[in-house]
Amino acid sequence: MYKMRFFSRQPAMSVMEVEGFSYPSEHLTRVQPKNLKLEDVSLFSVEFNKYFNAVYPEIIKNVLLFPNGFCFVNGVYFSAQNLKHKVKVYIKSLFPIFQIRKIRSAEYAVLLTDINSYNFFHWFCDVLQKIEAMKAYGVDLKGVNFIIPKNINIDLVTVASSIYNISFNFLQADEIRLVKKLIVIPQISPTGNYRPLLIRNIRDRFIGKYGYKSDFSRIYITRSKALKRKILNEEKITGILEKYKFTIVAMEDLDFDAQIRLVMGAEVLVGLHGAGLTHMLWMNSGSKIMEIRLKGDEVNNCYFSLASDLQLNYYYYLAEKVNANVPTQFSDFRVSPLEFEKSLSIMLAS
């Protein structure tokens, strides 16, 4: 038998502010990679000019909110467009139902997350943009009931709470929330894209809060301890990196504060396409980024776009995929040491 519990009513002014929130449309032109070759223009050209529509919250009434953040309103509510993906998400969303022991009720709640928000990159680059946008609009965030799915890393939530001085309300594994009015904040820009003012504000807040200056000016992030997407002959390039005074680090060895301290204020960051490059968020304008990325990949441009929007100098090196029939996100890579050193020296000398 389910037990019903009730939350106290939140301040009406905060609800009205969130409901009335909007963020304007925007056109932006990005700075091209510093070492762009004519034959590689097609890899990046789709990102050079972007237009983003204005954003408004979506109001949904009488929502059953599951622990994983999925919303049921006469069926499943989510934003996926692909039918196959919808079916997959629907089945996945039902898993927690066997753990449910109680139902709690709330007059209203605000949902910032989606099915990708548990990821380090998506939390900082998608979710925090929404918070920044609401602050820019003038919403009093202290009075807002932000709902967070149970699978979001508590360390990510804790640091956001500290930076923005707001509270988050975690969903529990054994309960459903019956929310009379759910305010869903959509993506401020399509994932992998950013509003330059907002993403720089995030950077400035963290630099202002932590105030660190890295002990290392040149950093290489290795994925040697990751479960997927590694450089199989990485030992061939670590010697080159050490020759150029790079510090080689696996982020898995460090807690979040140590990761920020390591990168904040560094002058050069190099790494294979992956979440570690999100740490460019803590670097000052004018710093240098080199992304090792798949040759011929015209899709995965999130780090090029992030570097441009943060006013960082972006360089790239194209690597060969080892597993030809495996998607980029799951494939391993090989790097030509000679070509890599050539690209690295060009970046450092510029």
Describe the 3D structure.
Helix 4 (120-137) links the parallel strand 7 and strand 8 (146-148). 30% of the residues lie in helices and 23% in strands. The N and C termini lie far apart (68 Å). The protein is globular. Strands 1, 4, 5, 6, 7, 8, 9 and 10 form an eight-stranded mixed sheet that branches. Strands 12-11-13-14-15-16 form a six-stranded mixed sheet. Strands 2-3 form a two-stranded antiparallel ribbon. The chain has 350 residues and is an alpha/beta fold. It has two domains: 13-24 and 53-193, no CATH class; 211-349, Rossmann fold (3-Layer(aba) Sandwich), CATH 3.40.50.360. It has ten helices and 16 strands.
Which shape, going by the Cα principal axes? globular
- The value of Rg in angstroms is 22 Å
Please summarize the sheet with the most strands: 8 strands, mixed
Q: What separation lies between the terminal Cα atoms?
A: 68 Å
Q: How would you spell out the order of helices and strands? A: EHEHEEEEHEHEHEEHEHEHEEHEEH
**What structural category do the secondary elements indicate?**
alpha/beta
How many separate domains make up the residues? 2
The residue-averaged pLDDT reads 88
- What proportion of the residues is helical, as a percent range? 25-40%
